Amino acid sequence: MPEEQEQRHVPADVERRLLVEAGHRCAIPTCQAPGPLELHHILPWARVKRHEVVHMIVLCANCHARADKGDIDIKSLYRYKERLRRLDAQVIQQPTFGELVTFPGTPALILGSNRFEGCPNVLVVNGKPMVQAAVEDGRILLSARVYDRQGKVVAVLDRNEWRVNPNNIFRAEAEPDRVRVVDQYGELALDACANDDGSVTVNGTFFVSGMKIVATDEGLMFNAL
Ligand SMILES: [Zn+2]
Asked: Are residues 74 and 177 both part of a single domain?
């Protein structure tokens, strides 16, 4: 292959990563044509002469022609790419907390602004505790089992220490009175905070029985998946 042609050839793994990122469809959300699919350099090839996943996107032939003409500009294409990244995070990586909360020895639990007293098991779904917090010597110790959508455990946090956490997908940031679990994109997955009155406040996103439950200071929100 002549050098120029060889350089223009997109390596198979780059092509595969882009296609998977786009779900093998055109990356323009209102198009999503299944084909014919082409690989587009968001930054013009003539300028960069490199095949980098972060600067490339999958488009159908129609959208590709529009991008080449400038009908779909560079900033928009990066936004569409960002959207795919977030979608990917949701589908593959977002922690799915299968069961909610038990708090042994904690006088009260505040979950999504609702206060539960004298009720050690709150919203337990399948018998196994999914998130537990204990306050010992003013220090909060958080345990959590992180599930994927198929119900498989993907990470286990045991009293602020990771027992299972492949590729360090999650990070636990522990302060004496607060533990935050953050995913690899820096998004907050779980936030447990010990209050002065001995209660514990927990916020986060949980996936239970086809339902997404978001607990925030504003309340509990239930959404069908
Ligand atoms: Zn398209």
From this structure: no
